[in-house]
Amino acid sequence: MTRARWFSPGALVLVFLGGAAGVAARAAITLPLATDPHPLVVPATTVGINLLGSLALGVIVGWLDDRHPLARTFLGTGMMGGFTTYSAFAVHVVTVSTASPFVGLALIAASLFGGVLCAAIGLGIGRRFTGRQGEVEPAEDAE
How many domains is the chain built from? Predict the structure, then answer.
């Protein structure tokens, strides 16, 4: 039995490149909206980006599965990891919650429940591409 290498410099480069592309895509969406004076524009944009990223990651994982590990590393871990942002979500929840606790809770609910729903939909879409609709990926294999 051959053991898989635990570290691959090539995979690390793919994560860096994908992460840079994902961060650039997020910035291209967020920065033009950052000048809007309404205090919920950027937090709502972050929620939207995270939901879109959850959907996209679900499609990537469902479609590529373990057949194309380097593509999944670049697109999933790298690009979607850079595109979505937990830290901005956390800061937005705290800042919005101090002004309006109910809106803060709505941001939390939309992000968490919406993210899980989008990921599930994305997995279904991705699996349809490969014809493996009913398979469930083990949690330790997820990105």
Answer: 1
Does some domain include residue 4?
A: no
Write out the two tokens for 5: 């290498």
pTM (2 d.p.): 0.84
**Coil/strand/helix, residue 131:** coil
Q: What pLDDT shows up at residue 50?
A: 96
* Chain length of the chain: 143
pLDDT digits (tens, 9 = 90+) for 11-29: 999 999 999 999 999 999 9
Is there a domain that residue 3 lies in? no
Q: What span, in angstroms and rounded, lies between the C-alpha atoms of 27 and 31?
A: 5
Check if the beta carbon of residue 29 is closer than 8 Å to that of residue 45: yes
Domain range enclosing 135: 9-141
